[in-house]
C-alpha cells in the first residue's frame, strides 16, 4: 500500500504518516499538487492520495483524470471545517478525514483500499486445483497467461500469484489494455519524453519502468493493437523499453502476467494476436473456472460480499435466507463473481430486515435451472418459453430511463443508494437525470431527492 500525502495536513503530517506506516503503508510526502504530479510522472507510484483540504482538490482530480492516474483522493482538514469538507467531496474527493488524525479511521481507509488483494475466497474443488497450481508456479519468474470468462477473478488470482512470489516486496502494476485508447496505451506502457507528442507536457515514466523489480499485469491483452504487440515482444525479449521520444533504451527487471477472456489460440489463428508474442507470454496457462462450474463457491462468496457491503454502508450484517441461497444456486451467473458481488451489494441495500430474502435479490433474468451430468460437465436447461417481459418493441433508452426512475422511487429519492443498486456512479446518475429533464421527461418528485 503506497500513500502519497500532499501538504502539511495542518501540521499533523507526522502523526498521519506514523499511523499509516504502522499499518504497513509506504508513505511519501510532497508540498503541493505540482510536486505530486511530478512524482507520479517520474514513476513514484501511489495507491491513495491524502491531500490537505486547503489545496485545490478539483484541480488535482482533473489533472489525475487527464493524465490517466486512476487514484482515489482523500481530503483532510480540521474537524469543524464542514464547508471545506462538503466542497472537497463535491470536487471529487472520495472521503473527508478530520484532523488530528484518528488511528482507526485512517486504518479503515487503508484497509478498504487494500482489501481486494489480500485473499481468495473459495470452497470448490475447481478453485482448489487452480489455487494449488498458482501456489506451485508463483515462486518462479515465468510469464503466465490467465484465461477465463469476464468476472471470474483473473486479476484477483494475478495479485495472489504476485503476493506468493519472490517479488512480493516490490510493486505489482496493473494496466487494462481494453480500457485505454490505442493512441494512449503506448505512452501508458512505455512512457514518453517531454514534447514527444501533443499533450506530452512533461516526461512520464511508463508502467514497465514503474514496475521495475516487481510484476506487471497486462489485463485483457488480447485487445492490444498489433503494432503495440510488436513493441511489447521486444520488451519481453530484450528486457528494456524505449520511451516515446527517447534516445536510448531503459533496462527493466519485471515479471509479466497477462489475462484475456478470449481463446488466445483462436485469436492467433485469426491473425489478431501475434503467435511469437503468445508463446512468449504463454509459458504457463492458468484457466479460471466460471462461477457456474464452481457452485460450491457461491455461498461463501455471497456471505463475504454481504458482510463487506453491510459494513461499507453502516448496516448490521444480514443473513442469507435458505430460499435466497437456493435462488443464487439456481442462477447461471453469466457475469460470474463480479455479477454476484453486484447482486449482493444491491441485496444488502434493499433488504429491510435482518435477513436477505428472495425478493431482495434482483438478477438479470429468470434463474435458469442447472442440470448436472456425469464427468462434472454442467449444462443449462433451456427456458420453457420465450417470454421477454414485454420488453420487445421498446428502445434500450426507454427501458434504462424507467429502471433508473423506478430505482430512485424505491430508494425514496436517495441518489447514492440508487446508484449503488444500479451499479453506476453518482455522476452518471446525475447526468442521466439531467438528460431526461432536458428531453422533457416527467421525473416524479420522489425521484429527485438528495444524495
List the keywords.
five-stranded parallel β-sheet, Rossmann fold, alpha/beta, 4 domains, Helicase, Ruva Protein, domain 3, 451 residues
The rounded Rg comes to 24 Å
Kindly state the percentage of residues in helix.
Answer: 40-55%
- CATH superfamily annotation of the largest domain: P-loop containing nucleotide triphosphate hydrolases
List the uncertain runs. Answer: 366-388
Tally of separate helices: 18
Known CATH architecture of the largest domain: 3-Layer(aba) Sandwich
The total count of strands amounts to 16
What does this structure look like?
It is a single chain. The chain has 451 residues and is of the alpha/beta class. It folds into four domains: 2-117, Response regulator (Rossmann fold, 3-Layer(aba) Sandwich), CATH 3.40.50; 131-287, 3-Layer(aba) Sandwich (Rossmann fold), CATH 3.40.50.300; 292-380, Helicase, Ruva Protein, domain 3 (Orthogonal Bundle), CATH 1.10.8; 396-447, Arc Repressor Mutant, subunit A (Orthogonal Bundle), CATH 1.10.10. Helices cover 42% and strands 14% of the residues. The chain contains 18 helices and 16 strands. It has helices at 13-22, 33-41, 57-66, 82-90, 103-114, 125-137, 154-164, 182-190, 207-210, 226-238, 264-270, 275-281, 298-312, 322-330, 336-350, 396-410, 415-422, 426-438; strands at residues 2-6, 26-30, 48-52, 73-78, 95-99, 144-147, 172-176, 215-219, 240-241, 250-251, 255-260, 284-287, 319-320, 355-356, 370-372, 378-380. The strands form five sheets. It has a five-stranded parallel sheet with strand order 2-1-3-4-5, sandwiched between helices. α3 links the parallel β3 and β4. α13 (298-312) crosses α15 and α16 packs across α17. The longest helix is centred in the C-terminal third of the chain and has 15 residues, at 298-312. Residues 366-388 have low confidence and may be disordered.
